[in-house]
Amino acid sequence: MKKTFDNFDKIKYLLAIFAVAIISISVYYSNRLANDMAQEERKRIELWAEATRQIINDDNASLEFTMKVIEENTTIPAIIADAEGNIFTFRNINPPSNNIESFLKAEIEDLRNKHKPIQIKLDEETEQLLYYDDSTLLKRLAYFPYIQWLIIMTFCVILFLVFRNAKKAEQDRVWVGLSKETAHQLGTPISSLLAWVEILKCNNVEPELMPEIEKDVNRLKTIAERFSKIGSIPEKEETSLKELLENTVNYMQKRAPSKIVITCNYDADAPTQMKLSKPLFEWVVENLCKNAIDAMEGEGRIDIYAFQKEEFLCIDVQDTGKGIPKSKFKTVFQPGYTTKKRGWGLGLSLVKRIVEEYHKGKIFVKKSEINKGTTFRILLKNNITH
């Protein structure tokens, strides 16, 4: 299993390296192509300027050739003006119907900041300046690396999500298989223990102890049933949530250290019945209580509050334990995370799955302070009958 998860991580890092390499190469060549195009456009506009000069100033110039050069510029915006800003002609610019001169002078200021104007020397005393902008094609090309970057990053994000979901699915299959195998392995000894309990009853062996033994054997049977339900769609039935919480509190109180007090506070306005998978939801409350007991190291309080808040039933499990750092509020629900010397770190992961996947609710760390305690909150939507 670890090897499979490591392979997922390697693929994820390889994808990231691949994306960075593709983006870097793409940006480099796109910028290089844009620079080459910009130089070519500069040469074309210089040729256009020379053709304009020849038409104005050279009687021997080929009129057909120079006009062809001028007419072929259909993409590069250009304005010809003198040093004082008097405009002689413009091309590939769409001015408004009024205030044309003011508009073109504002354009000249803008073009001057983009490219160095080209001088058109008409004679010793007369000079004009040609101002120009990049063509539409060159402007589009400038955005091309960013479009490529966006496409590649989108592709990598999609791949990352696919691999992350595949990794999660692989983990889920492992936990489900482990749970069902655990339930299967527990089945035979539990059946044998139930048979032995009946034999001991018939032989009147310690009659006062038999009910407690029977309770613990039935408890093992319930635990095996819970494990068997992991990975299957649980059957939900009308359940008294107040009774479920009180029974769980009573069960945990008898097995908790004597200096730990567990209470249940069920608000009068909270619903009395809900559709739940009773064995699985008992498991949720037990796991939260067990974690709280471990966090208090033999002394403290666990208070369970159930109350209505808008359309949700809220269940808060509050302890006076050692607390959880804020950076770990989400990490505590991940499979394998544990601060204890023993255990697999699956308790809160299973709790989250039971609440959110099976009961369509929400569980999170509402608040926690180091050495003061933690409050877990469960939100259940009202599939409730009053």
Explain this structure.
The chain is α+β, with helices and mostly antiparallel strands. 55% of the residues lie in helices and 19% in strands. It is built from eight helices and twelve strands. A five-stranded mixed sheet has the order 6-8-9-11-10. Strand 8 (300-309) and strand 9 form a beta hairpin.
Task: Write the topology of this structure.
Blueprint: H1 2-57, H2 63-71, E1 78-82, E2 87-91, H3 100-114, E3 118-121, E4 127-132, H4 136-202, H5 210-229, E5 237-240, H6 241-255, E6 260-266, E7 273-276, H7 278-296, E8 300-309, E9 312-319, H8 347-358, E10 362-369, E11 373-381, E12 384-385
Short summary:
The chain is α+β, with helices and mostly antiparallel strands and 386 residues long. Helix content is 55%, strand content 19%.
Please describe the structure with a list of short key phrases separated by commas or semicolons.
alpha+beta; 5-stranded mixed β-sheet; 12 strands; disordered N terminus; 55% helix; single chain; 386 residues; 4-stranded antiparallel β-sheet; 8 helices
Number of strands: 12
Radius of gyration, CA atoms, in whole angstroms: 39 Å
Distance between the termini: 46 Å
Give, in order, the helices and strands: HHEEHEEHHEHEEHEEHEEE
The backbone outline, from C-alpha atoms, is elongated
Q: pLDDT under 50 segments (min length 5)?
A: 1-5
The average pLDDT is 79
Estimated helix fraction? 55-70%
Cross-sheet strand order for the largest sheet: 6-8-9-11-10
How many helical elements? 8
Please identify the structural class as seen in this structure. alpha+beta
What portion of residues belong to β-strands?
A: 15-25%
How would you characterize the largest beta sheet? 5 strands, mixed
